Amino acid sequence: MAAAKRKLVIVESPAKARTIGKFLGRGYKVEACNGHVRDLPKSQMGVDVEHDFEPKYITIRGRGEVLDRLRREAKAASQILLATDPDREGEAISWHLAYILGVDGSTPCRVEFHEITDKAVKEAVKHPRPLDMKRINAQQARRVLDRLVGYKISPILWAKVKKGLSAGRVQSVATRMIVDREDEIESFIPEEYWEVSAQLESGGQRFSARPAGGNIAGGEMARKTVEKIKATDFTVTQARRAEKRKNPAPPFTTPNLQQEAARKLRFTTAKTMQIAQQLYEGVDIEGEGAVGLITYIRTDSVRLSNEAVAQARAYIPERYGPAFLPPSPPVYKGRSRAQDAHEAIRPTDARRRPEDIKASLSRDQYNLYRLIYLRFIASQMAPALYDTLTAELSGGDMTLRFYGEHKKFSGFTSVYEEGTDEEVESAETTLPNLQEGDVARVLDVQSEQHFTQPPPRYTEASLVKALEERGIGRPSTYAPTISTIISRGYVSREQRRLYATTLGRMVTQMMRENFSDIVDVQFTAGVEDKLDAVEEDALPWREVIREFYGPFEQSLEKAEQNIEKVKVADEVSDEVCELCGAPMVYKMGRFGRFLACSRFPECRGTKAIQIEIDAPCPKCGAPLLEKTSRKGRKFYGCKRYPDCDFVSWDRPVREACPRCGSHMTLKENRRGRWYLCSNESCRYRAEAPEENEQ
């Protein structure tokens, strides 16, 4: 008797295939297509402009073996179910698979799930649907637009500047934003201001207050203000008490997750998405097997399912007490441009606590899962409550102001608080019992000079936030955009901050002068809105391309004539080539910047860039270098190696241990930063100052 035919389920990755195969059992065969199987050709533009922008798709090189396997399995299957990711890109992959395998896309062949759990997968395969051509057309429009921009502008950059450069709709705007920020910093003129703070006492209580007018412009005026306060008796003329509520942040969207992982875990956007993908596709958990730990990771929605909310509301009073559960679930409003097709990023099961599965996860997986889990739980908790006091103290024509707040109920803050890109000065935690009519005695007055600061350089976190706020790109594009502009040499990342390079400035200026729309923030955001309209079936996708291409073609013709060939001079370093003695210059390669001989190609000498840290070698006093191991892990070694063999995985600092005199190292994790003595028998520990992370 012939064996019963099985249903074929096709997903993108082998990891996802293993997890889903475990859930579906013997009646199904789950195979992976390894991402896109058809795309526009790399060797040519692949868009027929003369025939209404018809795309020319070809099978991606190297996918032949995968497709042969899928064809064999498809022939033997009773039904083919396409279960790629639940977004535009995933819908397009399913569409291309349907074409190659001869599946009728108008029949129920598409399976969509937003979390890889036993229940979600089994429920999804029971309810397949036809392919969604609205999503597919939105993806085609984006792909064709990006191809037209990239394949029309990039050759001009190659001819006029240098080979290997590229332009793109989103990457060009992101580069321009970083260049603009660099220009703002360079043109910034600091302005002096003074902060004056008075220490006062009333009824045995000490507190501080500041002049009601705020900061003071000049040193002389600050000095006079200090003398005036010292000579004045103050009376409390107003004391207002109130209760302040601080609500929790919503559960994670993709941009929020990238921002918080950068702030709290120091992950790059690319690393965040890589680890999140692993958690989504499935991890082997002891006692459970492979299971998806979080919901779909590319989303800009803050919506949660009723089931997820119910799980959180059952867990919160049990774990933290009834007072921490609000009477009704919090409701969060998403961004106006948000697409609500997916839930927010959350754990697939609130009962699966991070500490319970820590042994089954890598360190990075655990840290990111914990971040997602705690944010989700906190989002469903009661607000934190604060008692606040605002007081005014008057004396003559001088008024001082006091504001303080005291947390009386921790609420969600006992679980999670959102990070910030700027340092925030907290108000005093104890409130004086001030009443109107109380007399306050001045104990001391201090003034401190400050200067206004330029806007901070972008970090990956703050750039993602800025792109999201301006409606540029979508959750799936932020990480690859940042990776691209760094790999192209337009932007460099140093100590987690993004700097515009000379090349980035030059290309941006060229784009501004010749393709102003491409680097215009509002124009690019408008294109995203039109792509959304295509997905909503409110706009034909080819119309979006037609509207864009007419003005773009005119810009191309002018650029060909107007742009003069420029030579980008290599930045010369202080290093000399060990092979021929010529100066070495900075170059950009696949793995970042490196040093190359200025006589290339006659001499092919290269050298890794040495980064000195601000600490001497504990053995010989020479400078220390930050290096990278073959596995990509940072370590620190003496510049005089091999004459001096000092090496350390932990970063040494200038400070010596006050207890034993040994060198101290900097340790840091999500809980903070501290100095630790390197002497195993001492291990003295002290708090390290926080970086001014912007």
From TrEMBL:
Domain Toprim: 6-116
SUPFAM superfamilies: Prokaryotic type I DNA topoisomerase, Zinc beta-ribbon
Site entry: Interaction with DNA: H36, R142, R143, D146, Y151, W158, R298, R488
A Pfam family: Zn_ribbon_Top1
Membrane-spanning segments: none
Region (Disordered) residue spans: 332-356
Biological-process GO terms, alphabetical: DNA topological change
GO CC terms of this entry: chromosome
Compositionally biased spans, kind Basic and acidic residues: 337-356
Domain Topo IA-type catalytic: 132-556
Residue numbers annotated as active site: Y296 (o-(5'-phospho-dna)-tyrosine intermediate)
Enzyme Commission number: 5.6.2.1
Reactions that this protein is recorded to catalyse: ATP-independent breakage of single-stranded DNA, followed by passage and rejoining
Keywords: DNA-binding, Isomerase, Magnesium, Metal-binding, Topoisomerase, Zinc, Zinc-finger
A molecular function (GO) term: DNA binding
Keyword Ligase in record: no
Function as written in the Swiss-Prot or TrEMBL entry: Releases the supercoiling and torsional tension of DNA, which is introduced during the DNA replication and transcription, by transiently cleaving and rejoining one strand of the DNA duplex. Introduces a single-strand break via transesterification at a target site in duplex DNA. The scissile phosphodiester is attacked by the catalytic tyrosine of the enzyme, resulting in the formation of a DNA-(5'-phosphotyrosyl)-enzyme intermediate and the expulsion of a 3'-OH DNA strand. The free DNA strand then undergoes passage around the unbroken strand, thus removing DNA supercoils.
Alphabetized PANTHER family for the sequence: DNA TOPOISOMERASE, DNA TOPOISOMERASE, TYPE IA, CORE
Summary of subunit composition and partner proteins: Monomer.
Family of this protein: Belongs to the type IA topoisomerase family.
Official protein name in the record: DNA topoisomerase 1
Species of provenance: Candidatus Avichristensenella intestinipullorum
Gene that encodes it: topA
